[in-house]
From TrEMBL:
Name assigned to this protein: UDP-N-acetylenolpyruvoylglucosamine reductase
Function: Cell wall formation.
Principal location listed in the UniProt entry: cytoplasm
Domain FAD-binding PCMH-type: residue ranges: 29-192
Domain of life: Bacteria
Gene behind the chain: murB
Length: 298
């Protein structure tokens, strides 16, 4: 075992692993090893881990459910922090949710407890923390519209909580990303009817299944929609659907998705990303911007 791992092992109480394959922790099923992989047991554990990383000058990467991310084949140096906070409490019109809670579980809780306001999130993969960091959304709505409070741990190990007013969010982004490790959020919700909610969620899921490669190994949409345009339509017009490289393929259902058809490497995916960007730039004169995070070393 490495010296760094041995030093951290004396301080850390949660789950730890050395050279942990990130392919086990991403929806793409792709990614080289994390130098050190940690799953904090509680806030104290997380704070101590971040203080240790800062004192040692070690890079950290916070990971939720591993969606919306491509980890390169050379893996991730430093410490990958996989959050484990799954609190779920409803008090009046406020729903408190832990960052590691999946969006699917969050919506199921909403249906069971007749809580409305988040139906548009149906079918979006990932966790509450990831949805906050990237301001996930669909059909004209974003997660940030509903968030009223955030708690987390700053990169120096200090705990922080703050009210949220909306200015913290942008299209597929927020000012929380990279500045703190999220523990949980409070979400403004309304009273609904379970049967109505289940029907609406089913309709949203049906639309996604019709237009997206649900069930395939992917990271979700690769590119952000340029202002006033749709990345998927630009990619389709540029003839990208069905393009392959190694084990990766541009989805034939939705061109803004790249699929791991089996054994794909990060290099395979990156090749298709660059191919897509070049084709759209050449044919439509539009520069596409990544929606997914691309991390690690080659």
């Amino acid at each position: 075992m490495g010296v760094l791992y041995e030093k951290l092992k004396e301080l850390f109480k949660g789950e730890m692993a050395e050279n942990e394959p990130m392919s086990r922790h991403t929806s793409f099923g792709i990614g080289g090893p994390a130098e050190i992989y940690c799953r904090p047991k509680n806030e104290e554990d997380l704070s101590g881990l971040l203080r240790f990383a800062r004192s040692e000058g070690i890079d950290t990467l916070a990971l939720g459910n591993g969606t919306n991310i491509l980890v390169k084949d050379g893996g991730v140096p430093g410490i990958v922090i996989h959050t484990a906070f799954e609190t779920l409490i409803l008090e009046g019109g406020i729903l408190t949710a832990g960052s590691a809670l999946s969006l699917a579980d969050l919506l199921e809780f909403c249906v069971e407890n007749s809580v409305a306001g988040l139906e548009f999130m149906a079918g979006i993969p990932g966790s509450v923390g990831g949805a906050l960091a990237t301001n996930s959304g669909a059909y004209g709505h974003d997660f940030g519209e509903r968030v009223v409070w955030v708690r987390g741990v700053n990169m120096d190990g200090s705990a922080v909580e703050q009210s949220v007013g909306g200015e913290e969010f942008a299209y597929r982004g927020s000012n929380f990303k990279g500045k703190m490790v999220i523990e949980g959020v409070r979400i403004s919700v309304e009273k609904g009817e379970s049967e109505t909610l289940r029907r609406e969620i089913s309709e949203y899921l049906g639309r996604r299944k019709k237009n997206q490669p649900i069930g395939e190994r992917s990271a979700g949409c690769i590119f952000k929609n340029p202002k006033g345009l749709h990345a998927g339509k630009l990619l389709d017009s540029a003839g990208l659907k069905g393009k392959t490289h190694g084990g990766a393929e541009v989805s034939q259902i939705h061109a803004n998705f790249i699929i791991n058809k089996g054994g794909a490497s990060a290099k395979d995916v990156l090749y298709l990303i660059e191919l897509a960007k070049d084709a759209v730039r050449e044919k439509q004169g539009v520069e596409l911007e990544h929606e997914i995070a691309i991390v690690g070393r080659d």
